């Protein structure tokens, strides 16, 4: 029976995680356990185990005597997370550059060609997807499970913010240039330059998001 319970709470966690990332469960929203049990067709025990998993991942916050709420990501959170993830992904780029073989570089070449085409077309959604694939490729190449685990956890939190940094004026072109500089460093086997390029790339994302937030505030200010 225990393996069945384990699979139930894993499945429930996966479905709730998907709903959170899709925005179906909005930031700040309360999770009604009775309603979720009915919706997911499970009992309270596997649901509560699933909720514990998502609390541990940072996607939910638990308030004593109140229950669970979807995490809200603040500007302060972004200010604190981006320097950390920049350091971690910078290290991943360093290790990936040390380990990349000819076949790895060829595969990254295809991804970067795709990225260039999406940028030329102004296809932001497709650009985001190619961008995500490139970041994941660097993390995979680094072959460091601890880096991958911590970066993955932080990226889950960033997904909650539903970030749209490429909407900032000129950001798409700058992002592409940053990616190409990173790839050039990898191709010439320069791990220090790759680390610096990845770190700068992520910190500039935060700058772009800050500019977007300021522009929105200036528009709604009386």
Short descriptors:
single chain, 222 residues, Arc Repressor Mutant, subunit A, Four Helix Bundle (Hemerythrin (Met), subunit A), 2 domains, 9 helices
Structure description:
- The chain has 9 helices and 2 strands.
- It has 222 residues and is mostly helical.
- The chain folds into 2 domains: 2-70, Arc Repressor Mutant, subunit A (Orthogonal Bundle), CATH 1.10.10.10; 75-220, Four Helix Bundle (Hemerythrin (Met), subunit A) (Up-down Bundle), CATH 1.20.120.
- Strands 1-2 form a two-stranded antiparallel sheet.
- The radius of gyration is 20 Å and the shape is globular.
- The termini are far apart.
- Keywords: DNA-binding, Transcription, Transcription regulation.
- InterPro entries: GntR_C (IPR011711), TF_FadR/GntR_C (IPR008920), Tscrpt_reg_HTH_GntR (IPR000524), WH-like_DNA-bd_sf (IPR036388), WH_DNA-bd_sf (IPR036390).
- It holds the Pfam family FCD.
- It comes from Paenacidovorax monticola.
Summary?
With 222 residues, the chain is mainly alpha-helical. It has helices at residues 2-22, 33-40, 44-57, 75-99, 102-121, 124-142, 145-160, 171-187, 191-220; strands spanning 60-63, 67-70. The protein has a two-stranded antiparallel sheet.
- CATH architecture field of the largest domain: Up-down Bundle
Assembly level: single chain
Please list the strands of the largest sheet in the order they lie side by side. Answer: 1-2
The structural domain count equals 2
Share of β-strand residues: under 5%
Coarse structural class: mainly alpha
Main sheet characteristics: 2 strands, antiparallel
CATH topology of the largest domain: Four Helix Bundle (Hemerythrin (Met), subunit A)
Order of helices and strands: HHHEEHHHHHH
Keywords: DNA-binding, Transcription, Transcription regulation
GO molecular function: DNA binding; DNA-binding transcription factor activity
Organism: Paenacidovorax monticola
Domain HTH gntR-type: 6-73
């Amino acid at each position: 029976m225990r393996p069945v319970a384990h699979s139930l709470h894993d499945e429930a966690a996966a479905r709730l995680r998907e709903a959170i990332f899709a925005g179906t469960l909005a930031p700040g929203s309360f999770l009604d356990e009775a309603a979720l049990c009915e919706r997911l067709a499970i009992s309270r025990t596997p649901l509560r185990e699933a909720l514990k998993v998502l609390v541990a991942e940072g996607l939910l916050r638990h308030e004593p005597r109140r229950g669970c709420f979807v995490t809200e990501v603040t500007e302060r959170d972004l200010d604190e997370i981006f320097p950390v993830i920049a350091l971690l992904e910078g290290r991943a780029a360093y290790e990936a550059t040390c380990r990349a073989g000819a076949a790895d570089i060829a595969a990254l070449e295809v991804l970067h060609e795709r990225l260039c085409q999406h940028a030329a077309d102004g296809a932001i959604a497709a650009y985001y997807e190619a961008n995500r694939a490139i970041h994941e490729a660097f993390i995979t190449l680094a072959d460091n499970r601890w880096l991958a685990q911590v970066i993955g956890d932080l990226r889950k939190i960033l997904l909650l913010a539903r970030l749209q940094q490429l909407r900032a004026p000129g950001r798409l072109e700058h992002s592409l240039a940053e990616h190409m500089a990173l790839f050039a460093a990898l191709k010439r086997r320069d791990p220090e330059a790759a680390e610096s390029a990845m770190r700068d790339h992520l910190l500039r994302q935060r700058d772009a998001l800050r500019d977007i937030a300021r522009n929105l505030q200036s528009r709604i200010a009386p």
